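Hi,

Apologies if this is the wrong queue. I'm a grad student, and the batch job for DUF1700 domain-containing protein from Fusibacillus kribbianus produced an output file that my downstream script rejects. I'm not sure whether the problem is my script or the file. Here is the sequence I used:
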Amino acid sequence: MNRAEYMRELAYLLQDLPDGEKEEALQYYEDYFDDAGPEKEAQVIGELGSPERLAAIIREGAGNGFEAESEEYAEYTENGYCNDRYREPQYEVVPPEQVRRSRLEDNGGRETEWSEKQCRRRHGILFWICAVIGMIFLLPFLIGGAAVFFGLSVVLFCMAGGVMLAVIVAAAALVVAGLILAGVGIGKVFAVPLAGMAIFGVGLILLSFGVLAVWLAVLLCGKAVPGILHMIGNFLNFVGRRLRRGGVTA
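Support response: The file is valid. Your script probably expects a header line. Output copied below for reference.
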């Protein structure tokens, strides 16, 4: 490793420092190399140690002045310029590969979170696009299904209404006929007792059937019509729940 590579690696390892402190430190060690001279470049690199070790020392002295702190430990010897602080064992640092890996992992985590947000956003947009396209294609079927359901509801309602009307008419006819025959029978009892009693009995039978028909008509009105309306309401509630569930899922 030559001087240029050493300083480039050191600059990379110090990129998390404030710009002023980083530039001060780099300039100090550039001057350090200049003072030693090109012929002692390898010796200076060996004295300074790895860029990682030197970066740890610089970070510890950040804010206290690199030049003043380094001069406290530096001296010229027979073997050239040296700094005893670089031999201290406590400056164990992380290898550059691990530093790069850690920074890449941090960046990767932020990129993953951003990618997940973008993915959810794209999925939401795709859902609404598919929903609109699906509604366009399904709209004729939905209209047709609604028309069929409405038609069936009308048919059932009309059938129930027709049955109820028939029962009411029959009940009214039976009641009227029973009353008439009962009255005629009472009138005939004194003239022709046997025939009068028979006619009176038939009138009572018809009257009882008429009362039964009235009860059936009331029962149909109280059960059939609310049942049909309840069925229509259940269908509309089902459709509404499906639509609301689709909106919440989106």
